[in-house]
Design goal:
39% of the residues lie in helices and 16% in strands. The longest helix is centred in the N-terminal third of the chain and has 18 residues. The radius of gyration is 26 Å and the shape is elongated. The termini are far apart.
Length: 341
């Protein structure tokens, strides 16, 4: 009988005992640094990023590729919309339900942790960086409500927070975690230089729910069209929006990109309007519109076109496979601006 190889057995045992962490990865500098801090301890990391109509995965995918992080992307639109309609902990400055949103993400990540037999979840959150979601109390509430409080680590601020079960058990070395606090990015920039991380994204602008103009339109959608579709949220991202009555709104493209986007997002139930002879915008009137709304939309098309503003002009209205032409004058700018959302 050949003697067993003790080194081989030891390596196999170490492989079985290898610690694994699930990173909530946005692709921003903080989440990238958090991954680096955890990787330095020889811990295996799987990245998870979430997408909805309000924030996407593009930045996370790019950053994950740079640092060689395996990334799973999960669409949480349905669950996120439910909390957005009535967040337990309210909104931030606009319509950002940050505490409820982070709780949802950690809850889903906790399920992934169990399914993949990982040991813990970690985020790039920094204590005191954001006034609503990153206070000591908020971080505690989010972790507790997720159902995985004992398994959540914030590596960038861990030394300023209570010690977790993972640190107590020695699976994560607390002494190699950090104590970053506040809104300044000085510490993160220095750490990025040490890791050789360059070209990282700016900290703001990731979530449309923090944008005042977008959230004004979203509130209007919630108020007048409770049975909206995801497509309706996508439309909020493009053009000038006008509220005509309780049932009708109009969207006017501002440039070629928005015109193309409105065409792409339209369905056979919508009315699409273009100028017949002059350069002008694409105008979209969502389904269930009446003739009065369509005629006003045609006048808006004329208003934002290169056509003379005091003459009748020809506008083409198309719905599905049928079309009609309307002769109409441009809407009055003052009236249009009063109707703008």
């Amino acid at each position: 009988m050949e003697p067993s190889n003790p080194l081989s057995n030891k390596k196999g045992e170490e492989s079985l005992l290898k610690v694994k962490g699930i990173s909530l990865f946005s692709g921003g500098l903080d989440s990238t640094l958090a991954v680096k801090v955890i990787l330095e301890q020889g811990i295996e990391v799987l990245g998870v990023t979430f997408k909805t109509p309000f924030f996407g995965e593009k930045k996370a995918k790019a950053a994950a590729k740079i640092i060689g992080l395996t990334l799973t992307i999960i669409d949480i639109t349905e669950e996120h919309l439910e909390i957005l309609k009535a967040p337990k902990y309210g909104y931030g400055k606009n319509m950002n339900p940050c505490i409820d949103c982070h709780t949802l993400m950690l809850k889903i990540a906790g399920g992934i942790m169990k399914d993949t037999r990982a040991d813990f979840i970690f985020t790039g959150e920094v204590l005191g960086q954001r006034p609503m979601s990153q206070t000591k109390q908020s971080l505690h509430v989010v972790a507790k409500n997720s159902g995985y409080q004992d398994y959540i680590i914030r590596p960038l601020s861990a030394k300023l927070l209570p010690e977790t079960k993972l640190e107590t058990e020695g699976k994560v070395d607390r002494q190699r975690l950090l104590a970053i606090r506040g809104r300044s990015r000085k510490n993160q920039i220095e750490l990025a230089q040490r890791y050789g991380i360059t070209g990282y994204a700016a900290p703001a602008g990731g979530c449309l729910l923090t944008d005042p103009m977008f959230t004004k339109r979203l509130r209007d959608l919630f108020a007048y069209h409770r049975n909206f579709l995801t497509r309706d949220i996508e439309l909020l991202k493009h053009g000038r929006h006008f509220r005509i009555n309780d049932a009708s709104r109009i969207i006017v493209g501002r440039n070629s990109f928005e015109n193309e986007s409105l065409e792409r997002l339209s369905t056979g139930e919508d009315v699409l309007i273009h100028m017949a002879q002059f350069p002008g915008p694409t105008v979209l009137v969502p389904s269930q519109s009446d003739d009065t709304t369509v005629h006003y939309a045609a006048s808006l098309c004329a208003l934002y076109s290169d056509a003379p503003k005091d003459e009748d002009v020809v506008v083409v209205c198309r719905k599905g496979d049928s079309s009609q032409t309307i002769r109409i004058k441009a809407a009055q700018r003052e009236d249009a601006e009063q109707r703008m959302i």
